[in-house]
Amino acid sequence: MNTIIKLFFLTVIIPNIIIAQKSKNNYEYNIDLLHISNDEVRVSFAPPRNTLQHGKFIIPKLVPGFYQAMNFGQYVSNFAATDKNGKKILTERLDKNSWLVHDLKHVHKISYQVADGWDSLKNDTQEAKSPGSMFIKDSVFVINYNSLVGYFEEMKDIPYQINITKNKDFYASSALDYTQKNKNTDIVWAKDYRQLVDSPVLYCVPDTTWLKIGHTEVLVSFYNNKERHYSKTIAREIENILKNQQAYLGGTLPVNKYAFLIYYESSNEKGFLGDGLEHSHSTVCLYRSGSMKFLPNALNRVASHEFFHIVTPLNIHSGEIQHYDFLNPVMSKHLWLYEGMTEYATIHMPVKQKMISLEEFEKSLEEKIHGMKEFDNKFSLTELSKNSMERQDQYMNFYQKGALVGLCLDIRLRELSGGKMGTQDLMQLLMKKYGEGKYFNEDDLFDEITKITYPEIRTFFRDFVEGTQPIPLKEYLEKAGFNYDEATGKVTTFPNPDLKQLALRKAWINQ
């Protein structure tokens, strides 16, 4: 999701340490969380072995999940390169997020400092918080590697070894597997930069609980400066949601490990501030309020949406996502899929799994319809997606109109298949076709979906996703025995639906 605060993360496959160390064909980073000065972390690294005369070092301008320039390089200072004798090698700052390093083949070490992006969730201006990492030396670190770690443009897709110096009592909560070298040093490996920046870590005195959902291990890690034993309460709250999501996804979750990293800041002020953003195998949630009573409900909503991202974009995504350009990203045109279909599953799953009543489902539809009307719906979803950085004022419509497009697609599929196929089945088929390591071509997706469904679905995409025709909510809801009053935005069930309507409703929402 994308409202007040954004963060971003993923999981890791551990490479063969012996081979990587012997060849030095990896980035070897040192991050010091123990000796903090002026809210800055000291970072250094040894570049991979190379024969380059110079190289362009990059800290991301943007990472997947953000749709406005964040310029993470703005937090970096005192950038310097030295050879094995400690002699300085010339470097030039090219812009906010990149540096030119001369005579790179002789560089032994590069060092710099990184300032924290925030030290409190308090936000008087109501502007989005910086997603830079947050440091409170003796208490907690929310680490986003896109703020701390970079790469050379000439040496992409290379493994990373990260050595972290930290408080001996701190524990690394992450979807990655951290190993302890000694009481003050952890080591973590990532197969490439993409995996690393998609894998945030919460460092603090641990308050953790593990859940087992099918074959999937789920870590719940919580930090609050006052409450030290709350992760079990949170785990109990979200366990039922995760089990129902497992059933909704066919009985098996497509990940082996997942982590919820939750930072909660107590406040004497009224109100509630918070949000979360998915990563492939984890979610970071940031909250601030005067009472923890708001937390379970807030987490239930966020946990449901963000966890569904294990379907897309983790297992279903385009080449623009697979080969993401962190300095000059090209936006995908399929946010209707990544966010719209994910949000649709978030409102569809509870009624399909009988977690909520029919009346509650109707209310959730009314909220989406009302939300959609707040935006300019003359834009096609594909056009808006490609221009999402420039049209931030329309971005949140993917969670409104995008979800309602998913609803209409689901009903249309059920109608064409006699109730046998819906969006749940479609997403399963797409996961089997593509999966975590394979991507689809941007311009081919609608045709590929049509091939595995029905010819009429291509027309649906042409009219309502690529095109600007109003989505036929009234017509489609009537097919399932619902009345939608376009004047009032009210959704109600027909008092006397016919057998065809009842059959479609049963196939669609199991009611």
UniProtKB/TrEMBL annotation:
One of its GO biological process terms is: proteolysis
One annotated GO molecular function: metallopeptidase activity
Read off the InterPro entries from this record.
Peptidase_M4/M1_CTD_sf, Peptidase_M61_catalytic, Peptidase_M61_N
Keyword Protease included in the entry's annotation? yes
Q: Which residues form the Peptidase M61 N-terminal domain?
A: 28-203
**Locate the Peptidase M61 catalytic domain: which residues?**
301-405
Question: Keyword Protease on this protein?
Answer: yes
Give the source's domain of life in one word: Bacteria
Assigned keywords, A-Z: Hydrolase, Metalloprotease, Protease
Q: Which SUPFAM superfamilies match?
A: Metalloproteases ('zincins'), catalytic domain
> Sorted alphabetically, which Pfam families does this protein's record hold?
Peptidase_M61, Peptidase_M61_N
Protein name, entry field: Predicted metalloprotease, contains C-terminal PDZ domain
Taxonomic lineage of this organism? Bacteria, Pseudomonadati, Bacteroidota, Flavobacteriia, Flavobacteriales
